[in-house]
Amino acid sequence: MIKSKKLTKIKNLKHGFFNSIGGKSTNIYKSLNCGPGSKDKALNIKKNLEIVRKKINNKAKSIFLIHQIHSNKFVYINKKYKRKIKPKADAIITNQKYLPIAVLTADCAPILIYDDKIKMIAAIHAGWKGAYKGIIDKVIKFMIKKGCNPKNMTAVIGPSISKKNYEVKEDFKKKFIKKNKKNLKYFKINKQKMYFDLTKYVYSSLQSNKIRNIDTIKVDTFDIKNKFFSARRALALRHNDYGRNISIIMLN
Length: 252
Fold this sequence. Notes:
This protein is 25% helix and 23% strand. With 252 residues, the chain is an alpha+beta fold.
């Protein structure tokens, strides 16, 4: 598990970016696979989520997960929220104590946000699609509507795929340039191949929402040495599936 230095200083907060170590899963899911969307055994995933919950806090309720769909949709959990089926969304916002909220990634960027005055948290799953569709903007604007202020917010971008390992095609680049010509700066050509800087794109989205207190955990999920699950690495190794990393935050 990796922690943000900025968030660790905050007493009433628990968080963590978990890699693939310390769980019950085997084979390609070895070992802390937390993704119910994977083809791993459901019992192993359940045990892994329980390991994460206890590491965060023994008093923590069940981890709140969403059905991630690479969208700009989010779910807000307050006292009135009635949990039925798992919502289809890519971010969770809450002001409830002892409720761990989490997103699952395997190269996409996980983002954890905390507002120090209002005591509100958010967990965002930002793949290129969600980031492109404005998931970060929507979450921050909603938090501001609820009384948060970017001056009081701390945002952390967790481990994700690095630019040197994120190869993309020309149509991908065109899509971003069409949206904004300034997006050209997130692309780099090396040996006739094109690469995209997802972390930098996410960082600038946070900055454009006036968040100044940003922490970036520069750990590449694609690099096997870092022990994170990676969809792109799994594809390169011709695996038929991959595990998911969990990034989690909780008010206490």
